[in-house]
């Protein structure tokens, strides 16, 4: 079983829509959780860390459910510039990356 | 944050040759990582490079094929040896700082 699993999408949504991504992880002892963003032909960059109580950064909300072992990312009021691949990252004895979820925001 | 300079940014190589990728960090870091990312795929960890010790390789990757150097706390190299077309990929250097991973811009390698 993979350490981290994500729905690869693609998600195609209109501007202004709300979209949510989920990610499950297999190791209940995982310690830290992140969402990274990767633009086409670019390196991954940290979008936000995921706190136990959930956290919000502008239009982005991240949540963690330890009991069910999943994390989520909610994007409100989608912008064209949100088009990218979103990678779920979980740490244990190393950083484990999901395969990424592709998002395209359509005008 | 950590700023990482990785070079070359891209290269086209003949099979059987070797390419060395360099990674320079703007601050001293204990752990540096080398990843490979195939088109449309996620990141695969090749090895972890710690200063002053042998790199730790993940399953499926060996030192003879991917020798790594880590001469100090700000620099590392990855060599892709005896290349074949299957080695065509993006190679990414990464460091861990304050429990976050930061990446170099990557090296896009094509092997003919």
Secondary structure category of chain A? mainly beta
> What general form of chain A does the structure show?
globular
N-to-C order of helices and strands of chain A: EEEEEEEEEEE
Given as residue ranges, the uncertain stretches of chain B (5+ residues, pLDDT < 50) are none
Determine the fraction of residues in helical runs of chain B and give it as a percent range. under 10%
Number of strands of chain A: 11
- N-to-C order of helices and strands of chain B: EEEEEEEEEEE
Most residues in contact, chain pair and counts: A-B, 18 and 17 residues
- Helical proportion of chain A, percent range: under 10%
Which percent band covers the strand fraction of chain B? Answer: over 45%
* Coarse morphology of chain B: globular
From the alpha carbons, calculate the radius of gyration of chain B and give it in angstroms: 13 Å
Q: What structural class results from the helix and strand content of chain B?
A: mainly beta
List the total number of helices of chain B: 0
Query: What's the average pLDDT of chain A?
Result: 93
Quaternary structure: heterodimer
Span of the ends, CA to CA of chain A:
38 Å
Radius of gyration based on Cα positions of chain A: 13 Å
Number of helices of chain A: 0
List the main descriptive attributes of the protein structure presented here.
heterodimer, A: mainly beta, B: 112 residues, mainly beta, 4-stranded antiparallel β-sheet
Quick structural gist:
The complex is a heterodimer of chains A (107) and B (112). Chain A has 107 residues and is mainly β. Chain A contains no helices and eleven strands.
Write the layout of secondary structure elements.
The complex is a heterodimer of chains A (107) and B (112).
Chain A: E1 4-6, E2 11-14, E3 19-25, E4 32-38, E5 45-49, E6 55-57, E7 60-65, E8 70-75, E9 84-91, E10 95-97, E11 101-106
Parallel strand pairs in A: 2-11
Antiparallel strand pairs in A: 1-3, 3-8, 4-5, 4-9, 6-7, 7-8, 9-10, 9-11
Chain B: E1 4-7, E2 10-13, E3 19-25, E4 31-37, E5 43-50, E6 56-57, E7 68-72, E8 75-80, E9 89-97, E10 100-103, E11 107-111
């Amino acid at each position: 079983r993979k350490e981290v699993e994500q729905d690869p999408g693609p998600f195609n949504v209109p501007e202004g829509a709300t979209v949510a991504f989920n990610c499950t992880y297999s190791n209940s002892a995982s310690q830290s959780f992140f969402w990274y963003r990767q633009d086409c032909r670019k390196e991954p960059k940290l979008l936000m860390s995921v706190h136990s109580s959930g956290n919000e950064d502008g239009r982005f909300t991240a949540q963690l459910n330890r009991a069910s072992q999943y994390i989520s990312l909610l994007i409100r009021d989608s912008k064209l510039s949100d088009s990218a691949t979103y990678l779920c990252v979980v740490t244990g004895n190393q950083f484990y990356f999901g395969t990424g979820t592709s998002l395209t925001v359509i005008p | 944050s950590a700023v990482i300079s990785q070079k070359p940014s891209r290269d086209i190589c003949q099979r059987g040759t070797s390419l060395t990728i360099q990674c320079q960090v703007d601050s001293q870091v204990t752990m540096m990582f080398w990843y490979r990312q195939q088109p449309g795929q996620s990141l695969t960890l090749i090895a972890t490079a710690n200063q002053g010790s042998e790199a730790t390789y993940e399953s499926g990757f060996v030192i003879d094929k991917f020798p790594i150097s880590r001469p100090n706390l700000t620099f590392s190299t990855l060599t892709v040896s005896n290349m074949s077309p299957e080695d065509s990929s993006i190679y990414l250097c990464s460091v861990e700082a304050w429990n976050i991973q930061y990446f170099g811009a990557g090296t896009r390698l094509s092997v003919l």
